[in-house]
Design goal:
CATH architecture of the largest domain in chain A: 3-Layer(aba) Sandwich
Structural class of chain A: alpha/beta
Oligomer: heterodimer
CATH topology of chain B: TIM Barrel
Radius of gyration of chain B: 18 Å
CATH class of the largest domain in chain A: Alpha Beta
Shape of chain B: globular
Distance between the termini of chain A: 36 Å
Number of helices of chain B: 11
Largest interface: A-B, 30 and 35 residues
Order of helices and strands of chain B: HEHEHEHEHEHEHEHHHEH
Number of strands of chain A: 9
């Protein structure tokens, strides 16, 4: 899932305090699961903003709406009237949801409440880790199901650098060395040969370096005759 | 083969080689490079010119290398993958060759977190293994990384790499050297050796794979300037394992710098006795003037 966390409240206040009627829209997808922009967090954020505005003696109406998924037009459409009536919209969705709202309502100020961080998952209560770098050409088959693109600080493709120590990355003792993990996994599977084989330079064209990426499925497209 | 590098000739002749290191300044003053070059002249067969080591902005390796050449030093241009993609790397390699550099050290590079611009975006389009393969293909296949033929003169570097025998997973470190050899490395300079037991074990693994016959191995030696520096390295540089014995020796010495040089000479004498060691890489960090004394005392000049 997409994992994010709420921006510092001061930053959110600074971007929203000029608007009299603010609509805060939560998202029921990934950000609900990672406790960043679901109903509970969105209501709490709105309460915090109401208090802050009161404290600043700013008269503002702050309303909350929930949305199944902000990254699909059909779920955004029912909110059109509410959005039109507001001066600005604060979205607690990921960056995708914010952009979908902004595209549907181009004349409206659409503001992000979250910092969208990565694609990953929870490893324990309250902890999320990044797993996928979205490089567009998955190499997990040769790395024991552990991604060095997302998880190695230097995106090494031919084994660990000289900074791997006691299973940790040289960048921080809080970060596991992805290649130590890969080594251990491949060793346990009898596949260490994969780390002896040379991996040539990666073709980054399916990655983000070519501008906005697009997937087209002709089999799913609806003919517009 | 290349044979255009003095370092390569020395190593091929079987003579115990010495490489040193010159850290370019954090400014644009060529005099600093000239001064350091003068101190190192005659003490080493070739001198590494570091490429923004520990991710701190310094005069470029190639530019400082050219200045060092004017002072009669043969440079080993260090090239990291941290700051350049494959386009910039190849462009710089063409330039370095055009300016007369003949040795290249291929490194992944220290993470920018350790330097003075930790907020920067890193590149790492390639890793050190892929950089080795790239440099070899420029020379032997006369081709750019994309496969396009080089029309005209190709860079024909004597190609080196680094290895850290003290990093993990330890059992992978000798196979990793084999991988570097296969990717194009002709010589290897290692991380600084203080932990002789571990280095000896690594060399055993290297010999078991027969690598010492195919690649020139130059263990890294760094003189400890003071007990304080030794303690700092022991605490803060993972895997370096500076033994307490050295710290005690430095603490007990009237002249700590002199004792630091004594220890460096001892280390050189020890690694020299290990089968498969072809030379030493003396890195006197911001202490280039110590190198001539060390190599002379070790009987290498």
């Amino acid at each position: 899932m997409i994992v994010g966390s709420q921006k510092p409240i001061e930053e959110i206040i600074a971007t929203t305090c000029d608007y009299k009627r603010l609509l805060v829209i939560g998202c029921g997808a990934c950000v609900t699961v990672c406790f960043a922009g679901g109903e509970r967090e969105t209501e709490a954020l709105a309460s915090g903003l109401r208090l802050a505005m009161k404290h600043k003696k700013i008269k503002a109406e702050i309303e909350v709406e929930m949305n199944v998924r902000q990254c699909e037009w059909e779920f955004i459409e029912p909110l059109a009237d509410k959005v039109e009536a507001a001066d600005a919209v604060l979205s607690t969705a990921c960056g995708v949801g914010v952009q979908f709202l902004a595209e549907r309502f181009p004349e409206k100020r659409i503001l992000p409440a979250l910092n969208t961080s990565f694609m990953g998952g929870p490893t324990e209560q309250g902890v999320w880790l990044e797993n996928c770098g979205g490089c567009g050409n998955c190499i997990l088959a040769s790395t024991g199901g552990i991604c060095p693109i997302a998880r190695c600080a230097k995106t090494m493709l031919n084994g660990p650098c000289g900074g791997s120590q006691n299973g940790k990355c040289e960048v921080s003792k809080d970060i596991d060395c992805a290649w130590q993990l890969i080594y251990d996994r491949l060793k346990s599977q009898g596949l260490l040969q994969l780390m002896t084989d040379y991996t040539p330079p990666k073709d980054w064209t399916p990655a983000r370096d070519g501008g906005q990426r697009k997937i087209v499925r002709e089999d799913l497209k609806i003919p517009n005759d | 083969m290349t044979e255009e590098s003095n370092l390569e000739k020395v190593l091929k002749s079987g003579k115990f080689a010495v490489t040193a290191e010159l850290g370019p300044p954090k400014n644009g003053d060529a005099k600093v490079v000239r001064e350091k070059a003068k101190q190192l002249k005659g003490a080493a067969d070739a001198v590494n010119i570091t490429d923004c080591q520990t991710a701190i902005v310094r005069m470029s390796s190639i530019a400082a290398g050219v200045i060092a050449m004017e002072e009669g030093i043969e440079p080993v241009i260090q090239m990291t993958c941290r700051d350049r993609n494959r386009i910039a790397i190849q462009s710089d390699l063409l330039g370095a060759w055009g300016l007369g550099a003949r040795n290249l050290l291929c490194l992944t590079g220290d993470h920018q977190k350790f330097g003075n611009h930790p907020q920067s975006k890193n590149v790492f389009d390639l890793d050190s293994m892929q950089l080795l393969d790239l440099a070899r293909n420029l020379r032997d296949a006369k081709k750019f990384q994309c496969g396009e033929e080089i029309e005209g003169e190709e860079p024909r570097f004597f190609i080196g790499a680094a290895e850290n025998p003290f990093a993990d997973p330890f059992e992978y470190r000798a196979p990793r050297l084999a991988k570097k050899l296969a990717a194009g490395a002709q010589f290897i300079q290692t991380q600084i050796v203080y932990n002789m037991d571990k280095f000896t074990k690594w060399m055993e693994a290297v010999r078991q794979l027969g690598l010492d016959k195919k690649i020139y191995i130059l263990p890294g030696v760094t003189p400890l300037k003071s007990a304080g520096m030794a303690r700092y390295m022991q605490k803060n540089v993972p895997g370096l394992d500076v033994p307490d014995e050295y710290i005690e020796r430095l603490k007990g010495a009237d002249d700590q710098q002199k004792e630091g040089i004594n220890i460096a000479v001892d280390i050189i004498n020890q690694v020299r006795g290990i089968e498969g060691v072809a030379g030493v890489h003396v890195m006197a960090i911001e202490w280039e003037s110590a190198v001539p004394t060390i190599v002379e005392r070790a009987g290498l000049r």
